[in-house]
Amino acid sequence: MRGDGVRNGDFYDYADLLDKEEKQIVQRVRDFMTEKIAPIADEAWTKASFPHHVVPEMAKLDVAGLQHRGASSLLTGFIVLEMNRVDPSIATFFGVHSGLAMGSIAGLGSEEQRERWLPRMAAMEQIGAFALTEPEGGSDVAAGLRTTARREGDTWVLDGAKRWIGNATFADLTVVWAKDEADGQVKGFVVEKGTPGFEATRIENKIALRTVQNADITLTGCRVPETNRLAGARGFRDTSTILRQTRGGVAWQAVGCMMGAYERALEYAGEREQFGRPIAAFQLVQDLLVRMLGNVTSSLGMVVRLAQLQDAGVYRDEHSAMAKAYCTARMREAVGWGREIMAGNGIVLDYGMGRFVADSEAIYSYEGTREINSLIVGRAITGHGAFV
């Protein structure tokens, strides 16, 4: 990939840190996104419909849960980046399945549970969802979780509601987080498709990540066997270990989203003519392009280092929080500049920028807002918690 940075947005050739086999995997993902997803992305987004027919093709890439099978964090990060360069909606679907759902089972499940579910999830024969956020709670989810779990013999009874749960309308397995009425601790449960008392209703009228099937979930006397309780999930601290990993993944998402926007803006600037020459020849357009590229490059450098810390085993909450807060803020700036370069054409899907602008708003907010992630970093550097 050396020397390709100017064309594909990796200006400092960070992808050269991957080994030969890893580069081949990333290239396969890039080809899949370009050939299979790019041609259908706008239509799926417009119709707010999920293209289920591409899942078997995606499964052939053999990248679902790769991070749970010994792959480097750098490789999995670049996979996330490549998906977001083309379609943040498909990337979010994949992240919920591979990162949040599979990550919960891989990190907090028993050996029996991992053997029961992970192979079929890796093959994408079973799709996962992750249900933590609630209608009345977002940033205060650690203390304000209202969904309850009550044990009755070898069964747990779940009651409550969840919101914004990606994949939940069609997922085969949904990891539901609930507070144990007996000890007040948050525990995780794998609810299988068709379980009585579990109802998922699609959220309509979204203006971002429209292809993702987000749902409101209602749990009414939903009975789950003890064998489906995640053995290693004994409190919210355990839940946080999963969020630490996926929050870093969202930073990679942000880099991919703004890289895709930059590449499209650069291409458009070379094609669009005004006053008898391409707008790429004008100083103010070049300035905007360089600003976009600067945001991409600085953010990519941050997430590459984040991956190195993760692989070295010295990765902390504040590291992922800083990356999520910084990279998503830079993404929001970059896609705005891309839209500015395209002027009115930037809000039309046909020109390849509109989805990035809209989808960036969702990426900016989920997995912890900028403010909450800033407070996580602030607590680490000052020694004082400023949470209310």
Automatic annotation (TrEMBL):
Family: Belongs to the acyl-CoA dehydrogenase family.
Lineage: Bacteria, Bacillati, Actinomycetota, Actinomycetes, Streptosporangiales
Keywords in alphabetical order: FAD, Flavoprotein, Oxidoreductase
Domain Acyl-CoA dehydrogenase/oxidase N-terminal, chain residue ranges per copy: 20-125
Cross-referenced InterPro entries: ACX4-like, Acyl-CoA_DH_CS, Acyl-CoA_Oxase/DH_mid-dom, Acyl-CoA_Oxase/DH_mid-dom_sf, AcylCo_DH-like_C, AcylCo_DH/oxidase_C, AcylCoA_DH/ox_N, AcylCoA_DH/ox_N_sf
Coiled-coil blocks: none
All copies of domain Acyl-CoA oxidase/dehydrogenase middle, residue ranges: 129-221
Domain Acyl-CoA dehydrogenase/oxidase C-terminal: 234-381
Cofactor: FAD
Protein name: Acyl-CoA dehydrogenase family protein
